[in-house]
Structure formats: C-alpha cells, structure tokens
Amino acid sequence: MLKLENVTKYYGDNLAVDNLSLTVREGEIFGLLGVNGAGKTTTFRMIIGLLNQTNGKVTLDDKPIDYNLTDQIGFLTEERSLLTKLTVKEQIIMYGTLKGMNKETILEKLDYWLKRFHISEYKDRKIKELSKGNQQKIQFISAIIHDPKLLILDEPFTGLDPLNVEEFVKVMKEMKERQKIIIFSSHRMEHVEMFCDNLVVLVKGKSVLEGSIKKIKKDYRKKNIHIIGDVNLNKLQNVTGVVEIVNNANEIIVKISDEKYINDVFNVVKNSQNIIKFMVEDPSLNEIFLSKVGAYYEEQI
Predict the structure, then answer these.
(1) Rg (CA), the chain
(2) What is the domain range of residue 74?
(3) Residue at 297 is within a domain
(4) Are residues 98 and 246 in the same domain?
(5) Model-level pTM?
(6) Among residues 194, 193, 197, which one has the least CA distance to residue 212?
C-alpha cells in the first residue's frame, strides 16, 4: 500500500504541494489529476524518492521510499526520457540492469512486450528512428520491464492512436488484477473514467476533489437530461433549475442545477410531440473537474 500523509513541499517560498494525503491499495488504479502546475509532477517525484518532502510522510508498505525500494517502482514520465541514439534493445537492457535484472531475463521480457505491442521488428532500431507512438510504447516497456509493484503513469497515452490506447488499457487492467499499485495522470477525463477507481484533483498543490469516481458523480447534484423530440426550448429555458440548454443536431441536452428539477423538466416535455428519448445522466467527470477547478479559482479572486 502506498500512503502519503500530510505531505507538503516548498521550493523556497513557493508552496508546490499543500498538506496532501492519499492512500492507494494493491489492485487499485488511482487518478492524480490537475491543471498544469498543480503539483502532480512534484508529487510523483516525492513518491519515487527523487525529491524530499518538506513535511509529511511517503511510505510503501509502511516503509519510507529509498534506494532499497526503488527497484519496486516503475515510472513513465510525461516527457520523453529515452536515449535516442540507443537501439530499443540497448535502451531496455540499460533500464532493466538498473533495476537489478539479468540480461537473459530482460531480453525474454522485451521480446514478449515487443510482440504484445506489435513492434518486434524495431528491436534493433535506434529510438530516434521510431515514430512518437512507438517511442511511447518503448517508454512504457521501460517502466514495466521489471514487473514493478508500484507503477506511476504520467500521460501514458501521448502519441498513441485509439487501438494502441486500448492495448495500454488492457495491460493496465491486467496489472491491476495482479494486485499492482497504479497511479495514473491524464488531462483526458474520459481516460480517467475508463478505469480509475479513486482520484484526487489538485489545484496549486491542494486537493479540491477526492474520493471514488462513482461517489463523486453521485454526490454531484447537477444532472444532464438528453431529449430527442419536438420540444419548446423557450418553455424549457424558463423552468426553474435549468442552467443551460445545448441544442445539438440530433438531440437536446438540458443541464439542471439539481436532480430535484427533473420532474419539472419532464412536465414540460411530456406534452411535446414525437418524444423518443428522455434520459437523465450524471455529468461527465470532465464537467465536474471544470466546475471544481473553476470554483477554486473564483474563491481566490
């Protein structure tokens, strides 16, 4: 289990992470989210031991993370961290060796992952000769080649097409089933909704939203109502609680401030013609993220 307890990090007088606490258990994919400069990268670096926290504790299985534990951690950084003049094989041998693996095991696992990601023919190619997407695959392999207990993935889908995103997701779910601890960061909320169990949203190093995604969406009072049919938009706009109406080409989306106004909207719609759809759904995680982050900034003004 990974635990951060009241972790704070200052760079001089600049507060980068503000009293952050979180727990990630085995077999869990945890989302660490935030806008640029929110403190995510600093948090990752404290977790893997590259930075010391100013206050608080970071532990893996109740032990402080130091060089005795780093072989149990895999980290895929947002920035490219590959040595582009090396071949794929040379690159992975170097990473695997640094993690205490022998060459025979490294090459055996490398062949498996290259085949899994359909790039076996690039084994002896230099990194600089690969496309951005294939470089991302190699970076991912470098993070998991030693079968880490804790895996940190910062924007892992950069440069990938939808098919390869799906393959990465399959691997992450397999690792979850094998009781790995996974921390995931992405600006794409649909990716987070796809497989994260719990999350924390950071703004200027401070948590502004945390908990299970299911509970976050359930507790968020705003709802979206999807309607297909001939509806009087003016009448809908005048319904108490309606905050926005989006008139798309194939459907109308009515956004309400609280689920208690659902029946009021329905009472307008039920007398309309050709209604073939009336569906209430929770807002997307992206909407909740924008709302919470926006509300934080408004409070600071």
Answers:
(1) 23
(2) 2-217
(3) no
(4) no
(5) 0.85
(6) 197
